[in-house]
Amino acid sequence: MDWKLKIAPAAAITGERVMLGEIAEPVGQIDAETWRILASTPLWSFPGREGQLTFTRKKILDDLDRLFPGAEQNFAVPEQVVLKKGGGKPVTVSEVDRMIVDYLTANMTGLDGELEVKEITLPGQLFIDKDLERLSVEGVGAMTPGRVNLRLTVTAQDGRVLRQIAANAFVNVWKVIPVAGRPLNLKEGVLTPEKITYERRNLALVRGVPWEPKDLTPMRVKSSLNQGTPLTSETVEPMPAILKGAQVYCLWRGNSIQLVMPVTAMTDGSKGGQITVRNVQSGRELAAVVQDAKTVVAR
């Protein structure tokens, strides 16, 4: 047998029996009369006006072997075939994938990086009547690098939602971001250019939002970091106005009196934040709000 047929993963059926020509197409050249005979070969009964059948690759090959003994090599069969009567024609996986990639590309452009869509997952085969129905894609929840949840919606011509199908995809976003140029710790103080280097990283695998060194706010690491660790909202923080152990002045304001006393900062504190300080003379601790690098105001 010098012919070969490729079985489709999905097909729309019209009659009471499934014909080979409804689910297969020739691969390469085939004699017209040979194809006519093959296409008219009945396979399975499919009564009724509507319904869906699913066959495994093994089931299909076994049935084809009974009809065409020894011709298994003449058929390219997918792992599963879904047949539907009523409800439109199958939408190819490549068509749905393209719609999802186009949607994600259009709606995640603000990430300022090289976007790459992987691992698109669908719950099953889609069938659409393209004359009467419309298929669209929308995001569900946060549109951030990593696993993104999506919804496929089938609507009628009048806008009525006919059905919705959950889907998801994994989105990689590649971007050059700042990382620790060497091992860093809290004692390093302000992050300066010599402590930073830049590497191309996948934001889907990076925790937090990458720090932008162009920001003039002095920053430091939150804890010890290994060389190459991304500098993000998870790993860096604004440099405190007052550091633990610093000697500063505490203002206490009464109704008609104001006192100034030297105190020691017991914790780090940013401007406007509350810290604990200790009175140098009495040893008493109290809460105070950071006013600037040298001053706190007692609460």
Considering the chains and any ligands shown, give keywords for the structure:
five-stranded mixed β-barrel, Type Iii Antifreeze Protein Isoform Hplc 12, mainly beta, 22 strands, eubacterium ventriosum atcc fold, single chain, elongated, 299 residues
Give the arrangement of secondary structure elements:
Elements: E1 5-7, E2 10-12, E3 17-19, H1 20-23, E4 24-26, H2 32-39, E5 42-45, E6 51-56, H3 57-67, E7 75-76, E8 80-85, E9 89-90, H4 93-107, E10 114-121, E11 127-128, E12 133-140, E13 146-156, E14 161-180, E15 196-202, E16 219-221, E17 236-238, E18 247-253, E19 258-265, E20 274-279, E21 285-292, E22 295-298
Parallel strand pairs: 1-7, 2-8, 18-22
Antiparallel strand pairs: 1-4, 3-5, 6-8, 9-11, 10-14, 12-13, 13-14, 14-15, 16-17, 18-19, 19-20, 20-21, 21-22
Please report the number of helical segments: 4
* SSE sequence, one letter per element: EEEHEHEEHEEEHEEEEEEEEEEEEE
The first-level CATH class name of the largest domain: Mainly Beta
Q: List the uncertain runs.
A: none
CATH architecture of the largest domain: Sandwich
Rg, nearest Å: 33 Å
In this structure, how is the largest beta sheet organized?
Answer: 5 strands, antiparallel
What's the total number of strands? 22
Helix content: 10-25%
Estimated structural class? mainly beta
Strand content: 35-45%
**CATH topology name of the largest domain:** eubacterium ventriosum atcc fold
Shape: elongated
- Domains (count): 4
